[in-house]
Amino acid sequence: MSDHKNKEVNPFSPKLSREKVQENLMFGLFRGMTYFVLFCAAFLFWDILSKGANKIFEGDGLINWEFLTEHPQTLHVIGEGDEEIKLSSSNYYKLKDEKILAKWNLFAKSPGFTSNLSDLDNEMIELQKEWTEKSLQFTNAEFLKKERDNISNKFAFWSDLLTDINASARDFEVEPQEIPGLVSEFILGHFEKERSRLPLVETKIILFRAQQYSNIEEPSLNTLKEIEKAYNAFLMKFLRLTTRQLRILEMKCH
Amino acid sequence: MISSFKKDRLIRVFFASNAVTSIIILGLITLFLFKEGIEFFGQYRHELERYRKSGMEYASVITAQHDDLTILYRYLENILSKETEALESLNGGGLNETNNNDGTKALLALSRKFQNTKEHLLNYEKQVVKWAAETKLFLLTQSDLLEIKREAINDSLAEEDFPETIDQLSNRKSFTHKELARWQNYFIRNNREDLAKRINPFVGTEAGTAKEGEINNLTQFIKKSSLNEYPAVLEKQKNEFSSIFTEFKPSFILPESRKDFANASKALDEYLDKTSLYKERLSAWDPQKPYPLSRAFTGFLFGKDWVTNSARHDWFGILPLFSGSLLVSMIALSLAIPFGVGSAIYVNQVASVREQSVIKPCIEFISAIPSVLIGFFGIAVLGGMVSLIADERLNSLTAGFLLALMTVPTVFTLAEDALNNVPRALRDASLSLGATRWQTCARVIFPSAITGIISAVLLGFGRVIGETMVVLLCAGNRIAIPDFTTGFGVFAQPVHTMTGIIAQEMGEVEFGSIHYRALFMVGIALFLIALLVNFLSQAIAGRYKTSY
To answer: Which residue is closest to B161 within chain A, CA to CA?
Structure first.
């Protein structure tokens, strides 16, 4: 009893007053907050490092050199379930080449392979000969002639439409006054097609169409002749130029 | 002596020139930002005027009205689905519920009739939108033609087959495709492909124009329809609604369905009352009424929509982005302030010297983590954790948590400095008077450092609101004002932010377009916020400095 009394009055015994409890609680809370922030940062680091390290140390050797040194590649997944294999692009193509080579070796050993190969070789030589004989210049001369014939047929057709407007109107089931508009649409449509067909002279064709636009918009027999003449001159000038360029290219290739 | 004086002067000039260069560069950047952004308002006003002139404004009123009806229809559908479910469960129990079956069938017939009646308005809306779309294309073509005609006049191009004057072009109500093709070829002939490219001779053909081979201004059609067609549609709807609701004999399985149906009838009455308001609004619509410039300002500052590449109209309201930024910042700060300041107090007042030497560099090191790495962590790990308590993986909460982690070092470092700067005498005096360490800390040191801590918080806010990568990756990027009526659910909503939208869209916009300038305006808003935050923190820090 007396001991207990002495303890109470002893000024050196540790006192757990309300203030002390509050202090412990508050500082404990702050300590908790501080270590929670550190824990979050550590967790972030650990997560990134562990997942990253997994990739670096995977594979046969200690370090995955392929991952560290090669370019980023598409991951190829072959097979399903237990047979699933994950390969980088380079390994995938390496494996593919190996498989093709194995198949080829098997095929090359098959009977009749050598004779078939020699037939194929002869055929190739014949083809090569034929291709060399038909020079590009010859093909281009043909092309120019074909173009001129084609355009002359087209203009003849459009002229016919304008020559007998009533018959054309009956054929197309429109009013006679709509025929020039129809011819105009045909000509514009032709140039639209030419643009995509002859990409080397596309801008020139656009410019030609723009220059002849007033004639094309309201065509008559006379204006049609003018357009045809101008277009023939245009073809001669620009297609020849283009073919010359192609010829130079051909010579360089040879 | 002389050479050392010269050397000092040279060093001074070197540093002064560095400072001046920095200030000039900063000034030029600010100037560029404002120059590019400020033109937005003129362009936006012009766009809003086009929105009105084309009739899209009129169409949007009809759309809003139709949306009201759709909500009502969904409500009826909801009652129907509950009733059908109840009927199926009854039939599953082996009971023959013919009456109930008839009741559900009647409800189904009512919903179908309601939908058919609703479609009168939908068809009218489609017609108006078609007219407005053609008018919009016409106005765009006209504005382009006026611009290129002006350039042709300035460059003294021969008139040839483009003799129309500026006034004639301005007064036109239609353009034929033929004349557009003629004008396009006129510019090609004159070696102005750049101008020729701005003319599309087939404009409007894809959507189908009112008259084949031409594009028209159809606002008169729209205006006329507001006086004839629209009232007729409303009248027809009113009659049909009243007849289908009168004919319907309600027989429900679920007691709450009766109540829901009564609510639906009430909502329909309210809608029918509201139609007169729509009617009034539409008949008062004037396509020629100018839009004041102030509407462009208010439209940007208080606009609730940020819609780009829309077929109808692009809206550039900053409110959804600002509210998104603010929500994410608030979440981040509500975590970063207690953790940052708490850690600062702990390290400064409680931790041992050894603990301090470990904790301080560790916390400060967090700020060195690249933000893209934190964002990556958010997508890969934290998003999954957040999805346990929210519907979406990426939302304001995910972004807020990560931003809090990024802001803790800023708040911690500055708050710790502020606590460090409190004179030791104050602490000693408090302790010698018998106060505990906590009492000293809470009542003497913390209040003395409060200005520095507030400054730290403000700088933390500046850090959060200016952060881009984490919000772009983790905030969900849904451009809408968060729904604050959902209570705590608001934290689980995906948002988009001011910084995020700049990073996401700046790479794809056409240089000089309204969208480009709108993004600059968002940049200016961010710049002003950052300026304000810095100004406040400096002002507070200044006060703090003068105290001791």
So the answer is: A214
What's the pTM value of the predicted model, to 2 decimals? 0.79
Question: Is position A243 within any domain?
Answer: yes
CA separation, residue A152 to residues A146, A207, A227 (Å)? 10, 21, 11
Same domain? For A90 and A8 the reply is no
Those of residues 344-383 in B touching chain A at CB distance below 8 A are 345-347, 350-351, 359, 362-363, 365-366, 369, 373-374, 376-377, 380-381
Q: What is the mean pLDDT of chain B?
A: 91
Interface touch B373/A48, C-beta < 8 Å: yes
Sequence spans of domains, chain B: 55-292, 327-547
pLDDT at residue A2, rounded to an integer: 46
- Asked if the Cβ–Cβ distance from A31 to B345 is below 8 Å, we say no
Chain A nearest-CA distance from B333, in A, is 14
Residues of chain B contacting residue A19, judged by C-beta atoms under 8 Å apart: 436, 438-439
- Average of pLDDT values for B107-134? 92
Task: Based on the fold, state whether residues A189 and A100 are members of the same structural domain.
Answer: no
Average pLDDT over residues B374-385: 93
Using CB atoms within 10 Å of the CB of residue A101, give its burial: 0 to 12 exposed, 13 to 18 middle, 19+ buried: exposed
A-chain residue closest to B184, CA distance: A210
- Statement: residue B93 has pLDDT above 60: no
Is residue A9 one of the residues assigned to a domain?
Answer: yes
pLDDT in the model for residue B212: 87
What CATH number belongs to B327-547?
A: 1.10.3720.10
CA distances from A130 to A123, A135, A137, B25 (A): 11, 9, 15, 70
Q: What is the 3-state secondary structure (H, E, C) of B72-137?
A: HHHHHHHHHHHHHHHHHHHHHCCCCCHHHHHHHHHHHHHHHHHHHHHHHHHHHHHHHHHHHHHHHH
pLDDT digits (tens, 9 = 90+) for A89-100: 888 899 999 999
Q: Is the domain of A166 the same as that of A245?
A: yes
- Interface contact B28, partner A, CB < 8 A: no
Containing structural domain, residue A102? 76-106
Contacts of A29 in chain B (CB under 8 A): 342
Same domain flag for A156 and A195: yes
Strands in A121-230 per DSSP E? none
Chain B residue with the nearest C-alpha to that of A41 = B366
